[in-house]
Amino acid sequence: MAEGGGRSNPNVPVYEYVDINTQVFHVGSFRQLWLDSLPPDVYSFEELDEEAQDAKFSEEFGVPAETLAELRAICSVDSLKSYPDDEPPDTSVVPPDPQLACLRLRKRKQDYKNSLAKDYTGRHDAYTNEMELQSVGRKPADADNAVPEGEIVLTFNIVYPVIFYRFKYVRPHQTLQVLGSQKLAELRDAICCVSDLQVFGEFSSVPDAVPQFVSKDHYKSAFFYFEGVFYNDMRYPECRDISQTTREWAKTRDFPAFTVAKMEETTFYDLKVKIGYPYLYCHQGDCEHVVILTDIRLIHRDDCRDRKLYPLLTYKHRVVTRKCSVCHLYISRWITTNDSLAPMDPCLFCDQCFRLLHYDKEGNKIAPFKAYSYVDPGAFN
Ligand SMILES: [Zn+2]
Ligand SMILES: [Zn+2]
């Protein structure tokens, strides 16, 4: 990226504040500039065969073919081998009474390791690895879902909202990759936030009647804010323009005019943005997430090339789950208040403990209390 100051083309991003954010540019035009100036083989998914690669290398670096062959022989991995391919030595065997300090060290380490319990990989790490394996260089089963060459990949960090008290002093986030040709609404659908999953109401008398409808089904309005434009989600009849209050308030103050657009009709190519600049995603009325575009680039052959997998989750902050206060084992599903049976107020329970403690065999409440559905932020881990 170029340093700030004069820029000849307004669609080439340059720094506004060095190492922090760029000036505004149009994503689609920026991509076009790349496509106009790069030879197609640079962003092609096709890999040249070895011979063609060599020829290209000789030409670019002005190295004659013989020199290249010599370099290849000298730098070959084979020249590093100290044993034949079919007789690999067992590297875990340390000779008895080793004289070398490094071998003695190794022996000590080996003995120590053997004394430990089996190495344990966290399920989260296993899951992350698995996710990565699923997407790296992945090609679509159906050619219709192939991402075309020259497509743009944008990386967004979605920060958790400040209304979650636990996140007041840390800023955990999730990272998502989207394609330039995708609609803003697709990013919206990929953002997972517990605010969307709340169930409103008190259910102590009818614990089985907790409705399957969560906040997301009731309150569908949301918007993204980028560079003076509120992109509203208007896909459903019950959606409202929840940016209206803000815009009207701004009109009475000394703000530049804000405009509105629809997120389901806007692609990322249509956007004018700054890289590194904090924008906003707002849903459920007041659940406000800072959204930062951290990277923009052409798609590479090693990227996931299955359009259906985008927006692609590449990072997710893990939250410590709150366990049931009875069994300390399962993630909480219920929260009670004014509960004489509970050790504290409010108190969290898993479904099973909640029912065993509060109801008799016929399913009647055995003490007065209020119960609400609880969604743990760690349920997404
Ligand atoms: Zn939220
Ligand atoms: Zn429990």
Automatic annotation (TrEMBL):
The keyword DNA-binding applies. The keyword Secreted does not apply. It is found in: Nucleus. GO terms for molecular function: bent DNA binding; core promoter sequence-specific DNA binding; RNA polymerase II cis-regulatory region sequence-specific DNA binding; RNA polymerase III type 3 promoter sequence-specific DNA binding. Keywords: DNA-binding, Nucleus, Transcription, Transcription regulation. GO terms for cellular component: nucleus; snRNA-activating protein complex. One of its GO terms (biological process) is snRNA transcription by RNA polymerase II. Part of the SNAPc complex required for the transcription of both RNA polymerase II and III small-nuclear RNA genes. Binds to the proximal sequence element (PSE), a non-TATA-box basal promoter element common to these 2 types of genes. Recruits TBP and BRF2 to the U6 snRNA TATA box. Belongs to the SNAPC3/SRD2 family. This is snRNA-activating protein complex subunit 3. The gene is SNAPC3.
